[in-house]
């Protein structure tokens, strides 16, 4: 029992849980935002979420606190955050709907492929560089849209286009990894 508690109650896992708790906070703040200050506060919550994401990964690797729970919890927190941010922004900026659709298709593909590989006792051995880069670009782009809410339409389209391009590259990298016998797919240790 003590070993289970030790594996669950790690700093990286607690940071991932904090990120999950920040998702509804961000949603409420973002959806109720009316003033520039309101948008900055909701962007601040997003920045805090991104910083805890970076910290949990660093701490897990440097302090050897990688756990099975953390391997599952971290990407769930990432995807929940990204999805809610895109939904909230799409409600104010319908131009983002194609990006949101691509996100949903990509994540459904990854979920289905992940489940199929799990049935074969295999799983992806961590995030691909393209996925990490896409997450960073999305974070920066979504934060910019929130902070500079009066940006000219051409700039808004450019930011959305850049996010779309990086998400497409990430999707292609994961599709290639899952559909070809990639070295990133590992046997699950029992």
Named CATH architecture: Up-down Bundle
Please summarize the sheet with the most strands.
Answer: 2 strands, antiparallel
Separation of termini?
A: 19 Å
In terms of per-residue confidence, which ranges show pLDDT below 50 for 5 or more consecutive residues? none
Strand segment tally: 2
Radius of gyration: 18 Å
The residue fraction in helices comes out at over 70%
Mean of residue pLDDT? 91
Write the SSE topology.
Elements: H1 2-8, H2 11-32, H3 36-62, H4 68-92, H5 97-119, E1 122-124, H6 129-147, H7 153-179, E2 185-187
Antiparallel strand pairs: 1-2
Provide a brief overview of the structure.
This protein is mainly α and 190 residues long. It contains seven helices and two strands, in the order H-H-H-H-H-E-H-H-E.
Main attributes?
mainly alpha; 190 residues; Four Helix Bundle (Hemerythrin (Met), subunit A)
What do you see in this structure?
- This protein has a single domain (2-187), classed as Up-down Bundle (Four Helix Bundle (Hemerythrin (Met), subunit A)), CATH 1.20.120.1760.
- The chain has 7 helices and 2 strands.
- The longest helix is centred in the N-terminal third of the chain and has 27 residues, at 36-62.
- By secondary structure, the chain is mainly alpha-helical.
- It has a two-stranded antiparallel ribbon with strand order 1-2.
């Amino acid at each position: 029992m003590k070993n289970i508690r030790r594996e669950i109650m790690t700093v990286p896992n607690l940071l991932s849980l904090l990120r999950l708790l920040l998702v509804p906070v961000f949603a409420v703040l973002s959806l109720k935002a009316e003033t520039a200050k309101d948008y900055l506060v909701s962007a601040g919550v997003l920045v805090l979420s991104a910083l805890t994401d970076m910290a949990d990964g660093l701490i897990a690797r440097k302090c050897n606190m990688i756990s099975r729970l953390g391997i599952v919890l971290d990407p769930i927190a990432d995807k929940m955050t990204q999805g809610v941010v895109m939904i909230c922004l799409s409600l104010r900026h319908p131009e983002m709907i194609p990006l949101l659709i691509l996100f949903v298709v990509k994540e459904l593909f990854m979920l289905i492929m992940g489940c199929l590989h799990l049935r074969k006792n295999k799983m992806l051995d961590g995030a691909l560089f393209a996925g990490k880069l896409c997450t960073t670009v999305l974070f920066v782009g979504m934060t910019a849209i929130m902070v500079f809410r009066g940006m000219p339409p051409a700039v808004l389209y450019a930011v959305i286009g850049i996010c779309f391009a990086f998400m497409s590259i990430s999707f292609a990298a994961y599709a290639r990894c899952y559909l070809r016998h990639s070295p990133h797919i590992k046997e699950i240790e029992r």
